[in-house]
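Narrative summary of target 7.
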Amino acid sequence: KGIIEWTNKQREKYGLAPLKENQILDKTAMAKVQDMFANQYFAHESPTGEGVSDLAKKFGYDFLLIGENLAMGIFSSEEDLVLAWMGSPGHRENILNEKYQEIGVAVKKGIFEGKEVWIAVQHFGLPSSFCQKPDSSLKEKIEENEKQISELQKELLTLRSEIRTLKKWQMEEISQKIDQYNKLVSEYNSLVEETKNLIDQYNSQVNSYNQCLSEVLE
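Modeled conformation, tokenized:
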């Protein structure tokens, strides 16, 4: 699409990475165009209070950042449209926002307040996948281990109690119970150590994710 190409040429001038076209954002942009024609308004928020973030959620675009540029009129070319946006501080800021990675565009001709005009919409996004979420399977493994640790603690307490109730003359049985107890202690210690390492790993991922979010949203 020409608008995306001209948008990326502007970004290139300022040493910014090109935006990648996202099909869901194309759909949200078209939905915005159609809604403005259908309800005869030209604004970032619809008469029902729906904005670009609402559209993104409705269409299933999971984002950290989202933005929108609107234009209405008779455009001589796609390049002129992008240049017009570049001449407006708010629109320019969206086009040159280094945090955005994806874009969707829609342009349509229709009747607005009795006149035939074009409406153009750009939707910009930074997908939530940009910040890697903590591994949920790690958390599940930690919870599973903690349950096992709890069960082992109960078994150890039971065994200890059994050993104490045995008489001195039951040496063979005492010896067996002690061996069993020591094996469980070894298993318990290994599991505790493994779980500690998993928790450290998970917490590190949480910290990295939170750090990423704070940098994106600052």
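Helices lie at 2-13, 23-39, 52-59, 78-86, 89-95, 136-165, 171-217.
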